[in-house]
Write the structure tokens for this entry.
Amino acid sequence: MRTFLPIAAVLGVLAVVPLVVHSNVTLNFLVVALMIALVGQGWNILGGYGGQYSFGHAAFFGTGAYVTAILQVWYGVNAWFGFAAGIAAGAALGGALGALVFRAGLRGSYFALVTLAFAEVLRIIASVAPVTGAGVGTLIKLELGIWTFQFQSRAAFYWIILALVGLSLVIARLIERSRFGAWLIAVRENEDAARALGVDASAVKSVAMVISAAITAAAGCFYAQYFLFVDSGIAYGTWISVEALLTPIIGGVGTVFGPLLGALVVKTLGEGAKLVAGDAPGLDLIIYGAVLVLVIWIMPRGLIGGLTHVRKMLARREATVVPAGKARHG
Amino acid sequence: MLSPAILIPAILNGLLIGAIYALVALGLTLIYGVLHIINFAHGALLSAAMFAAFFAFRLLGLDPYVAVFLLAPAFFALGYALQRFIIGPASHGDDRNMLLVTLGIAIVIENALLYAFRADTRTIDVPYAFQTIDFGFTFLAVPRVVGFIAVFGVALALWVIMAFTDTGRAIRAVAREKLGAQLIGIDVAHIYAVTFGLGTACVAIAACLLIPTYYVNPRVGDAFVLVAFTIVVLGGMGSVPGALVGALLVGVAESLSGLFLGESLGQIGIFLIFIVVLLVRPSGLFGARA
Amino acid sequence: MAEPLLAVDKVTCRFGGLLAVNAASLAAQAGQITALIGPNGAGKTTLFSIISGFVMANQGTVHFAGQDVTGEPPHRLARRGIARTFQIVQPFYGLSVRENILVGSHLRHRKRDAALSAADQVGRDVGLGEMLDKPADALTVAGRKRLELARALATEPKVLLLDEVLAGLNPSEIRDIVPVIRDFCRRGITILMIEHVMQAVMSLAAHVFVLAEGRIIAEGTPSKIVADPLVVEAYLGRGAATKLGAQHGR
């Protein structure tokens, strides 16, 4: 139980925010940031812990968003069921992709490319298929109420996305402390050595992909409910694939809080850019790209990795300062 | 629909388009063959080069076929500097990091273009853009024919460089055995940068060949580069003949499927080929088994 | 003679035009140390890779405890009880020594606590007790070899394939690690080792196989091998053979 204290503490602090902050603009900013954090948490399971860098996580985000939206709009399915179905669809897609790709032994650049291609194929299909509304997109009818998963107050959405993020933090921590997690990290560090120690690398990677896809799909479902509009560019666009990998890398790959921290930093930078230079398209992404390069260059383990490094250095400094009396007994 | 009068020009046009694809793919496969990374910045660099060609025409009055002699060296230098001073140092030698760094650079370049020039599509107007040459059994557009010839010229020039110059030999040594090359005194960082520069120069040349008939916007490079990725994987990563053959095949395939299936589905066709090749035979037609 | 625990029967492996292993057969008796020696490039590591499932043989079979395990993937063989170390050590550099061994012990212990104490025990057994918390990349070459050994041992194997575990160690480091290997054999683990350090082979191995150019050219006790003219010609050289023969009382 003690291992979940940090998570509980962070969630506790974040949960109080809507009680103190009443500005809709700020709340909206935080909701979007938390949603991006959730996307990043998903990517982090496969990329951070598993070392498989996907460049097409939009495939799962978009599938979650579209399944939720389409089930409601075309089949009158209840929004909450739609949400669950969206997550299931994302997980299923992750499983199918994982089976195909890892069975074929794809790693590294090839894996990145194939995930990119999948996301693009889905985007093109979504941009022409009638069920997704083709170029026009899909609009969910505004109908406030708990049953339809549409809330008057931003705070309600905030707490829901916070709960989802909290769940993803717990999942990450559970994985870290489990046999599956030890195997997944081993595969990341050295796949052949792991296999020689009894790890079924393909299976482990596939499971990681399913979990990763489910979490990211949940973020997509949330997007659909929050913005009530989905189109191919939003659902499967490169922007979301980029943010999926950017937030864990900046915050710290393979850590529990990395994506959350990274999302807050990235979104703050984005808002900051808009304040300074106005609403011109592309400016925030320029900053994201530059930050990505800088982080890899200077702090490859992200912010959390950097902090851990500093902490270790300080600990080492302390250890070498031996108090006068003790030296004799050494 | 299947009459020779329609099929043959479609195939020939496919070959001509394929030649331009080949040039883009050549740059990519060269970089992969030597640095062993997929250069995700390739598309953004193509977009940048097309903007450069556009402004060379609009502001300096330079015809693209003249501007190429200015832009190719300029982009060689840009590519060299990018690899030498940013990508190399930032990656700390890790392939996974190199992927991310080139992605980051792609994002920066593409969005800088977006920020500076907006998303509007622009074109240039040159007198020969719509002229055609009469080959007897069919008419072919001048820019495409020029492009086809130019690509073979570039391929030949690259071959000469690789086979007969010291730098070319050094590049081939590094591609085959980096550690050994280092041990005999080859400056690997320099060779990496030269290779990257050559790949970027290919892209600049492709841009000048495309601009007479193609439009320009910040995302134009992406479409070409995804096709180029497919070609490189199909032909075999790092294989120059593979890139050439693959490009011609893909060009023809795209032309024919455009004929039968229409624009947007044609795009999917390319991706699906890409995915299938990656899953079934990632080493490609000419590539060595990874 | 009892049924061997590990039996490799006429295994052949071809890479393109190159015949890496040519109808090679060997056997490891339970509870013994068997050595595989031979010149560089003879195909020893390839044979290990075939036995441990990393490479597919074109022909031939591998039997373990009487069962045909030819072509099974590495992880399944590890579960059966065949573990291997790599010639070029492959530690999980980003993890601590304990976390490295943990990956191995998790094969037999699902729960983290049980796996951790098992890992600690193995770490102490190979002499890494002081280093358990340190990062793997802080170890010396000798330390990394012990780590490689510890990881494999943590999977509680019945057969342990050691690929040049003594390579790169100085004589005192070798003197320190040989008893560790002998100790694990005494505990019941069957060992098949590729080695170039002939002194170690002579003192450890009960039975030796010699591989040259992909073929087994001789087998027998260490003293018999050292006297075999074919082996002397192909690998040992006359000076070394005489010295070894004298030291180990032919």
About this structure: DSSP finds eleven helices and two strands in chain B.
